[in-house]
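look at this:
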Amino acid sequence: MRILVIERDREVALKILAYFEARGHQLDTIGDGIAGLHFAASNGYDAVILDWMLPRMEGPEVLRRLRLNHGVSVPVVMLAAKVALSDKIIAFRSGADDYVTKPFELPELEVRLEALVSRTEGRVTRRRLLIGELTLDLSTLEATRAGKRLHLYPACRKLLEALMRASPAAVTRRQLEHTLWGDDLPDGDLLRSQMSSLRRSIDGPFEEKMIQTLPRVGYRLIPPSRPMPPRGREAL
């Protein structure tokens, strides 16, 4: 799972990060409500772990705006030291999918998230990936940048989805090749040709370029003139 952790307590965030990364999950961590709202709305996470007591904007308000203003249906688990029924009602009415009281056990948090994500993937929902001004609708397979519809061949669309899901981290050439062809790799450097086609669609008409080549590594996608979300330990 790709998970956003919005948690003000550095120690709690570190414990969540270490536990989930050790089990193969990918995490971003943010300790601020307003910044957390921005990244939750912009980066196509599989799930969000949301603390109630956040600086600048508390968890329930972050969640209300995420649901109402941005239309994001990502599964959200609210964390809180509050145990009163009235507080749980506030969380669920704000749009929480689950509520976990502090202190909690990390294995329980993991299985709760897995159950929520599994149910979400089993529903027909409108899901979007959004990086800066670039959008990929996973339901309609339509891509736009700055409101302009982009024409993408199926292979390019697969590459774009992989880059957007990882953004701003790099995706290796081997990972991208596996995305297109699995273990049955074609002869020659067909990935370079597909990436050139993707670049023409994504960056060709625009002054600022979003796709970067990392020599001997792979590629990454970054938003133009926008701050990138912190990833993993760098955010703490």
Notes: The chain has eight helices and twelve strands.
